[in-house]
Write a structure and sequence with these properties.
There is one protein chain. The protein is α+β, with helices and mostly antiparallel strands and 410 residues long. The chain is built from ten helices and ten strands. The protein is 55% helix and 16% strand.
Length: 410
């Protein structure tokens, strides 16, 4: 804000200086023109000196070739003259040389009007930017800080000028998503704690029974074979019960733990690819990675455009992270009523035997050593494509790693 005010003040001061300097230059130029009469008066004097007949009749001098000269006559000090003149002596006589300097101030007025309009326009633009852009932005400057601090309850107020309409709408959506995620996380933690308490209680009962059976057998409390058999059967039953609890925990752990919001719709393939090409063309050029997008015939796809872009971005990021950095390409093909989009990177180091597992949650292949990640990228891709009635598969060919999205046409 302060820097903007300094820049604005500097530009306004420079414009004022420019106006003053141009006026000084123009006035100086006009003054030099005004003094031009003295030059012409000297020419008249020379003409009188060279021609005796003109000295006798100075009124015969042709003044049409002079810009400022009006009349040449004998000087009479008693004669009243309302014009500007100079008195020059030629021979033994004095001559009155009358002149008129015509001042044209129209260019000066037009110049100053134009400069004034430019100055006022500059001031208006700076005031407008300050009131409609800078000041509202300053009022919004604490939004991200509040979001980072977890203050998610206050909705984002929209500015009336609507310059930040889409930005504010996006920030408010982010706030709502964060608030929803926070609420779901709290609910998840609650369910997790409840589940742990329930399981610990449920498992504690059969463990206590097994402990009692084991203690009784070790101390020889059961004397008959039938009692011992019943004790062994009881231990076996309780271990089966514990096994069932463990199986339930395993089943719950494999259930989907992420929510994928997919909004069905229709969109052009070119719309999704435009944002991918725009972003990764610059990013990969910085990384000195060759980036090639194959030719394709545009078509209407069925699904969620934003989610398809997200899946392609995940594949691109995987290609950047796990490839050798030489080349990444996107190619297209047809299959029945589907459009296939394949992301290929060079330098594949994953084993073909691992391809069946790479789309599982938290799975990380043998090529991920010393590379940070959580093993969810391809899992998210698979879940999103399934919810858009599509699919995804991977292959290794000639040392290249290929991941193909199957997107349905509308």
């Amino acid at each position: 804000m302060r820097r903007f005010k300094k820049i604005s003040a500097s530009i306004i001061i420079l414009e004022i200086i420019l106006i003053v300097v141009l006026n000084i230059i123009y006035v100086s130029r006009e003054d030099s023109k005004a003094r031009y009469y003295s030059v012409e008066a000297e020419r008249v004097v020379r003409q009188l000196e060279e021609d005796e007949s003109l000295r006798e009749n100075p009124g015969n001098i042709d003044l049409s070739k002079y810009e400022t000269m009006k009349r040449v006559s004998f000087f009479d000090s008693e004669e009243i003259c309302n014009s500007s003149y100079v008195v020059e002596k030629v021979g033994d006589r004095e001559y009155r040389i009358e002149y008129e300097v015509k001042k044209n101030n129209d260019p000066l007025i037009l110049m100053n009007v134009g400069l004034a309009v430019l100055f006022l326009l500059t001031v208006f633009i700076f005031i407008y930017i300050d009131r409609k852009v800078i000041s509202p932005f300053n009022r919004m400057s604490n939004m991200t800080v509040d979001l980072a601090k977890g203050n998610l309850t206050n909705p984002v107020k929209e500015e009336k000028n609507r310059f930040f309409g889409k930005f504010l709408w996006g920030v408010d959506m982010l706030r709502e998503n964060l608030e929803d995620s926070k609420s779901k996380n709290l609910e998840f933690q609650k369910e997790k704690k409840t589940l742990l308490l329930s399981l610990s209680h449920d498992i504690k009962t059969p463990l206590s029974a097994i402990q009692l059976y084991t203690k009784a057998l070790s101390e020889g409390i059961y004397e008959t074979d039938e009692e011992k058999k019943n004790a062994y059967d009881g231990i076996l039953a309780k271990t089966d019960e514990i096994k069932n609890y463990v199986d339930e925990i395993h089943r719950i752990s494999r259930e989907e733990f992420m929510e994928f919001d997919v909004k069905p719709g229709e969109f052009y393939l070119s719309e999704a690819m435009a944002s991918i090409v725009t972003y990764y063309k610059d990013k990969l050029s910085v990384l000195h990675t060759e980036f090639e997008v194959g030719e394709y015939e545009d078509c209407i796809l069925s699904g969620d455009k934003d989610r398809l872009i997200e899946t392609i971005q995940n594949l691109m990021e995987n290609a950047i992270k796990y490839g050798d950095g030489r080349s990444i390409s996107v190619s297209f093909s047809e299959e029945e009523d589907c459009r296939l989009i394949t992301v290929t990177n060079t330098g594949c180091s994953i084993e073909e035997s691992e391809l069946s597992s790479i789309f599982d949650s938290f799975y990380r292949g043998s090529n991920t050593e010393n590379i940070q990640g959580n093993g969810l990228g391809l899992y998210i891709v698979k879940q999103l494509m399934h919810r858009m009635d599509g699919d995804v598969f991977a292959s290794v060919q000639d040392g290249n790693f290929n991941v193909t999205l199957v997107a349905r046409k509308a």
